[in-house]
């Protein structure tokens, strides 16, 4: 029976990014597999998503894709995954990905990536899970977002303790070190 942990990867599905984003995708896929993790992601063959899935599979990780019927109908479903789950819609997709995953990583991405990682972050804040949540700040991709987070804290829209709900990794080394040493902490609800 396999008991490897599964990392949920949120990232871009665009094929029009600067090459550096595809290079970090290949590196993540390889290191994910070599560090003994499996992968859960959005199930498509395009963009960073497809590259990470291809590379992780190539290096021995079991890759599970979770794709909504509508996106599958566009012909974007990855044809060579260990497992594919087709869901009714995006809400079911996100719930399924959460259930199948032991940790959540936001690589650079667009609106979908932001929406997914924020939903997971809020679920952790409300005590629905206590799994690692990581922003992979490759090439300072999320730095402006973290400035906005500072504004949230400064104006008391969130407690400073909320910072403990997520980790900002500036390299894959930092990310994997955090995953290996992660110990769930009790978080006091905001009320």
What is the fold's blueprint, element by element?
Blueprint lengths: L5 E5 L8 H16 L3 E4 L5 H12 L4 E6 H5 L9 E5 L2 H11 L2 E4 L4 H15 L7 E4 L6 H12 L12 E3 L2 H10 L10
Parallel strand pairs: 1-2, 1-5, 2-3, 3-4, 5-6, 6-7
Helix pairs in contact: 1-2
Main features:
single chain; 191 residues; alpha/beta; Rossmann fold; 7-stranded parallel sheet; 7 helices; 7 strands; 16% strand; globular
Please provide a written account of the structure.
The protein is α/β, with parallel strands linked by helices. The protein has a single domain (6-181), classed as Rossmann fold (3-Layer(aba) Sandwich). Helices cover 42% and strands 16% of the residues. It has seven helices and seven strands; from the N terminus they run E-H-E-H-E-H-E-H-E-H-E-H-E-H. Strands 4-3-2-1-5-6-7 form a seven-stranded parallel sheet, with helices on both faces. Strand 6, helix 6 (143-154) and strand 7 (167-169) form a beta-alpha-beta unit. Helix 1 (19-34) runs parallel beside helix 2. The model has no long low-confidence stretch (mean pLDDT 95).
Q: What percent of the residues sit in helical stretches (DSSP H or I)? A: 40-55%
Per the CATH scheme, the topology name is: Rossmann fold
Largest sheet: 7 strands, parallel
The CATH architecture category equals 3-Layer(aba) Sandwich
Bulk shape: globular
Strands, count = 7
As a whole number of angstroms, the C-alpha radius of gyration is: 16 Å
The unreliable regions are: none
* Percent in strands: 15-25%
Please give the order of strands in the largest beta sheet: 4-3-2-1-5-6-7
The string of secondary-structure elements, in order, is EHEHEHEHEHEHEH
How many structural domains? 1
Question: What is the CATH domain class?
Answer: Alpha Beta
Distance between the termini: 42 Å
The tally of helices reads 7
């Amino acid at each position: 029976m396999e008991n490897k942990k599964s990392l949920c990867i949120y990232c871009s599905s665009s094929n029009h990014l600067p090459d550096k984003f595809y290079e970090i995708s290949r590196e993540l896929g390889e290191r994910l597999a070599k560090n003994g993790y499996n992968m859960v992601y959005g199930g498509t063959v395009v963009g960073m998503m497809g590259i990470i899935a291809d590379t992780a599979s190539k290096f021995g990780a079991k890759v599970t894709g979770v794709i909504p019927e509508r996106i599958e109908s566009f012909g974007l479903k990855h044809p060579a995954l260990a497992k594919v789950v087709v869901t009714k819609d995006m809400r079911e997709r996100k719930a399924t990905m959460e259930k199948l995953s032991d940790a959540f990583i936001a690589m650079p991405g667009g609106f979908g990536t932001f929406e997914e990682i924020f939903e997971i972050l809020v679920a952790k804040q409300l005590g629905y899970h206590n799994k690692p949540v990581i922003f992979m700040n490759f090439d300072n991709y999320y730095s402006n977002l973290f400035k906005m987070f500072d504004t949230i804290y400064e104006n008391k829209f969130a407690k400073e303790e909320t910072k403990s709900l997520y980790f900002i990794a500036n390299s894959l080394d930092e990310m994997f070190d955090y995953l290996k040493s992660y110990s769930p902490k009790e978080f006091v609800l905001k009320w």
